[in-house]
Every structure is written in structure tokens, then in C-alpha cells.
Specification:
elongated, alpha/beta, 13% strand
């Protein structure tokens, strides 16, 4: 989603309000409003001190012009007091602003993390949100940028408005009327310095917008390029062994360099555009230093202004011009901020979209009237609506292990995703016995960062003493890992896939589910070890019903039923496993 315009449109303001209102209506709103009120009061105090310092300019420079030694030293002492108070107000305004940013960012980050994890949104974004790139960046970086810039711009605008209102009055009173002859008449422009400052700022703002309006889209795209480049290297790091086996360094290098080239090309466009803005802003700010003197000096030379009055006029003009030129000075930052707003808005929109897709699933999951698992009229589709499995009816009684087989692409893993509630493109009904515990084991088990103990006990809803964990590891033929229980590491890159799959069996023994679904969970094990793992389940968990996805014929001996998925007919056939001695009839 790219932005074609950079001005503050009603749509942008609507997006900003949508992103901000949740915090300002949250349980922390009282603290937030108190902090904001304190920040605004301190900001007003800073503006008031600027007014007093502006008056000081008149008194001090007039004393210099008249060689009033005593008054000069008095004004120096007065400046010291004013400057000290100004510094205190400025420091605490900044400090409280950072405190509010910290609270706001903490709350908003937590909100996005909850929304990302809710209803498996993180999974659905990965699987179906093809237009949503780098959600981690949205949460970690964009939230911080949005909170910091939004509060900074709001306080900056308030300060600019208060400064403008304060110094416009001063400048109007000091500048006096400007007289000129035109068409045989004498014309007078009251407060002409105010009109000059307004005209100067308007011209500068218009030129800045004309030069830099493309920066929003460029900044938006730059963040995406940076994230894509970083993600490609992270992905190689996660798959380093596979790349090394394939000797794929050259191709990976080409991918890195291509993405980096795209990054640099866009960055170069930003540099060229910002160079134009630097030319404009530098010239604008430097001319602004001398411009009020050029405009006001005729009155000084006519002795209508003292030196102090001239300095006060110049300072007041500078304050008015700075306030009116706020958007000129902040244009680059505003462009980056608008890109952040667009990214967060699109992130929320994509999360809502995949959540809606998940809630649109027509799969009804209920409680079984008996002790069996019931699947009724199940139809599984691809995201494009093409069916991969139709009309599945199955009753599986407890204790009757089921093996799901079929060609690649026939929907074996997708069927498990449906039963787990992960796949939204499904209709039908599934019923499990009430109160049954269910566990799904993927082909590559997830091992979180942290201690090995934490990895074994993941997701951490049960705790066991170390002695029990050592016994479980030994039973799963990985007892040699017990010495690492309290060590921290990236275990997914430390252990082989076979060791990871045996760790998954250790989790099964720990959590003891009533219904166990395994998606090729022994694919990395040799047949002897595979047999030992299934025998271990039969010995330790005799009341657990196992539903396995697998291709090996060696798995047949551990299952009483086989469900064969036909890729071409989109149908499933249920039959007794060849090795089964006792098999009840299943309704299909």
C-alpha cells in the first residue's frame, strides 16, 4: 500500500485517530492524561519564558546602545535567572514526554502482541497473508516510531501554535505600519512584519511540499526493502545446514545482493529527494536569519526603533516564522511518520482480514455424545476454493489408532490443520469427547529459546522435577541430553531433527494427552527407533488414541485403521490396517 500524497489528509487523520484512541480510552487513560497535561503546562511555561527572553532582548540591547553600565549588568543577572528557569522547564517537559512514550509504547506493543497471537493470527498471516510483510518489524519498530513521532508532533504543534499566538501580538505591536505610495495614494499596512512572516512561511511550506511530497512512498518502500534484506539473511541463518549441504552460497549471495541492490536504489532516490530538501531548508533558514533585519532596518535608520527594539523585532519575527514554518522544518520526519501510520494501519487491516477468514470457517467443533471422535460431512478446500477432500465421515473409537496415508498433496497435513482449527477453508463438524486433552505434534517440533528444561516442558502448562525429566529423556533414548537441562541455547540449531522429534515424544509422555495427532513426527528416525517410540507410547499411555500421518509401511503395525486419501478423486477410504488383529467397524 503506497501513499501518493503527503499532505495531512482527512484519511490520514482518521488513521492516526484509529491508532491512538485505543490507548487514550484504556485503563491507563487517567495516568496518560495527567502526564499529557503536565507536558502541555511545561510547554506553555517554555513559551512564556521565550516571551520574557524576547522582552529581555529589548532591555539589554537598549542598555548597550545607551552605555548604561548598571542596567547592562542587571539585565545579565536577569537573563541568568530566566535561562535557568527555561532550562528546568525544558528538561522536565522532555522527561515527562519520554515517560508517556514509554507507557504508551508498552501498552500498544502488548495490544499488538495479543492481537497477533489471538486465534492463531500469526499463523494465518504467515500462511494466507501474502501481502503482509514482516509483522515483527511492525510490532518492534513501527509501534515505537509511531508513538514517539505522534506525541512529538502533537506537542510540537501545540508549542508552535502557542508561540505563534504569543509572538504575533508582540510583532504586531513592534512592527508598526508600513507606508507606501501607489496610484497616487498613500497606503498603510498595519503590523506589516506579521504579514511578511506569514508570506515567507507560506512560500517556504509550499516549495517544501512541492519538492518532498514523494518522500512518503519512498520511506514506506525503504522500510520494506530493509526488512526484506534482513529477513533473507535471518532465513539463511535458520537454514544454514541445508544451504551448506547444497553448496548454495552463490545463489544465496545473489539473493542478498539483489535485495540489497533494490534497497540501495530506493535509498538513493531518498537521498536525492532529501538533497533537494536540504538545499531548500538550508537556504530558507539562513535567509530567515537576516530577513527581519532587512525588513525592519529602515525604521531603525529613521530612528523609529532603538537597537533593543530592532533586536526584539528580529527575535519576534524569528519566533513567528519558526512557528509558521513548523511543517517545513519537520517535513522529512512527517513523511516518515505518515509511512509508519500506513504500515501500522495495513498491519491491523491484514490481521482483521485473516481473523475474519478464520471466523468465517464453517467447521463446527463440539462435544461427542459418546467417547468417540466424530467427523461429519467434512469438506476441505484450498484458499482459491478448489476442494482437496470432500464428504469425509468418520467415527473413531478411543484406543483405535488411525494412520492417514496418501500421495503428497492429497491433504493429509491439511486435514490435521482442520482438526486443530488452523485451516479456515473447511466446512463440516468434528466432535471430541468432553474434557479430552488433545495434542498435535508437527514434523519439526518447535523448540523455544531458553533452557533445555523450558524447551521440553513447552508450552509450560505443566512442571515436573528434573529427576522426572531425566527419566523421560532416557526413555526416549536421548538421556545424554539431561546434562544440558539448565543450559540456555538455540536448541533448534543445536540438535538434529531426529533428536528434536524424540524431544517431542518426551513432551507427549509429560502431557499425556487423550488424543494425539502426529504429522510425520518420526520421519527423521530410523525404523528401529521409530518402533521404539510407538511402543513407548503404547506402554506408557495405553489410553491415548494416536492419529498419525506417515508414508512408511512400518507404521501400519502400530495402528488398527488406515485412512487413505485419494488425491484425484478428493475422497478418503477407511480400512483395517493389515497388521491389525482386532478392529471394530468405523462408520464412513
Amino acid at each position: 500500500m503506497y501513499v501518493k500524497r503527503t499532505n495531512v489528509t482527512p484519511n490520514l487523520l482518521k488513521q492516526v485517530w484509529h491508532l491512538t484512541r485505543s490507548y487514550w480510552r484504556s485503563e491507563e487513560k487517567k495516568k496518560a492524561y495527567l502526564l499529557l497535561a503536565a507536558i502541555l503546562l511545561l510547554t506553555l511555561g517554555v513559551v512564556f519564558m521565550l516571551v520574557l527572553l524576547n522582552e529581555w532582548n529589548n532591555a539589554f540591547y537598549t542598555a548597550l546602545q545607551d552605555y548604561q553600565t548598571e542596567e547592562i549588568f542587571h539585565q545579565l543577572k536577569r537573563f541568568t535567572v530566566l535561562a535557568f528557569i527555561y532550562i528546568i522547564l525544558a528538561v522536565y517537559a522532555y522527561y515527562l514526554q519520554q515517560v508517556l512514550i514509554l507507557h504508551w509504547r508498552r501498552w500498544l506493543t502488548g495490544r499488538y502482541i495479543d492481537a497477533w497471537l489471538q486465534n492463531k493470527t500469526y499463523y494465518r498471516l504467515q500462511m494466507f497473508g501474502k501481502d503482509m510483510d514482516n509483522p515483527d518489524q511492525r510490532i518492534s519498530e513501527d509501534v515505537n516510531l509511531f508513538v514517539t513521532d505522534t506525541l512529538g508532533f502533537f506537542v510540537g504543534i501545540i508549542k508552535a501554535v502557542c508561540t505563534l499566538l504569543s509572538f504575533v501580538v508582540i510583532l504586531w505591536q513592534l512592527s508598526g505600519p508600513f507606508s507606501f505610495q501607489l496610484l497616487g495614494r498613500t497606503w498603510q499596512v498595519p503590523g506589516y512584519m506579521v504579514w511578511v512572516a506569514v508570506a515567507y512561511a507560506v512560500v517556504g511550506t509550499w516549495l517544501t511540499h512541492r519538492v518532498g511530497h514523494k518522500l512518503v512512498a519512498l520511506n514506506f518502500l525503504q522500510q520494506r526493502r530493509e526488512a526484506d534484506f534482513r529477513f533473507s539473511m535471518m532465513r539463511m541463518r535458520e537454514n544454514a545446514e541445508s544451504v551448506a549441504f547444497y553448496h548454495g552460497e552463490e545463489q544465496e549471495g545473489r539473493v542478498f545482493k539483489n535485495r540489497f541492490t533494490l534497497l540501495l536504489e530506493n535509498f538513493w532516490k531518498i537521498v536525492l529527494k532529501q538533497k533537494q530538501l536540504v538545499w531548500l531548508n538550508s537556504g530558507y533558514s539562513q535567509i530567515a536569519i537576516i530577513f527581519p533585519f532587512v525588513v525592519a532596518i529602515p525604521r531603525f535608520l529613521r530612528r523609529e526603533l532603538t537597537l533593543g527594539g530592532l533586536m526584539q523585532v528580529a527575535t519576534a519575527f524569528g519566533r513567528v516564522q519558526d512557528a509558521l514554518s513548523y511543517f517545513v522544518d519537520m517535513y522529512t520526519s512527517l513523511a516518515a511518520w505518515q509511512a509508519v501510520v500506513e504500515r501500522l494501519t495495513s498491519f491491523e487491516a491484514h490481521m482483521e482480514l485473516v481473523q475474519a477468514a478464520g471466523s468465517a470457517s464453517q467447521l463446527v467443533q463440539g462435544s461427542s455424545p459418546d467417547a468417540a471422535l466424530h467427523i461429519k460431512d467434512l469438506e476441505v478446500d484450498l484458499p482459491n476454493g478448489q476442494p482437496i477432500l470432500q464428504g469425509l465421515n468418520l467415527t473413531l473409537e478411543p484406543g483405535k489408532n488411525l494412520l492417514i496415508q496418501g500421495l503428497s498433496g492429497s491433504g493429509k497435513s491439511t486435514l490435521l490443520r482442520c482438526l486443530a482449527g488452523l485451516w479456515p477453508f473447511v466446512k463440516g463438524e468434528t466432535d471430541l469427547p468432553p474434557g479430552s486433552t488433545v495434542m498435535f505434534i508437527p514434523q519439526r517440533p518447535y523448540l523455544p529459546l531458553g533452557t533445555l528444561r523450558d524447551a521440553i516442558l513447552y508450552p509450560g502448562t505443566r512442571d515436573l522435577p528434573d529427576a522426572h525429566l531425566r527419566q523421560v529423556l532416557a526413555e526416549c533414548q536421548i538421556g545424554y541430553l539431561a546434562k544440558h537441562l539448565l543450559e540456555e541455547g538455540d536448541w533448534a540449531h543445536v540438535f538434529s531433527l531426529g533428536e528434536q522429534q524424540r524431544l517431542a515424544f518426551a513432551r507427549i509422555l509429560i502431557y499425556q494427552p487423550a488424543w494425539l495427532f502426529m504429522d510425520e513426527s518420526t520421519s527423521a528416525l530410523d525404523e528401529e527407533t521409530e518402533a521404539r517410540m510407538y511402543q513407548l507410547l503404547a506402554e506408557k499411555l495405553p489410553h491415548t488414541t494416536v492419529i498419525s500421518v506417515g508414508h512408511r509401511s512400518s507404521l501400519l503395525q502400530f495402528h488398527q485403521l488406515v485412512l487413505h486419501l485419494d488425491k484425484n478423486k478428493k475422497e478418503a477410504t477407511l480400512q483395517a490396517a493389515p497388521a491389525a488383529q482386532d478392529c471394530r467397524t468405523a462408520e464412513f
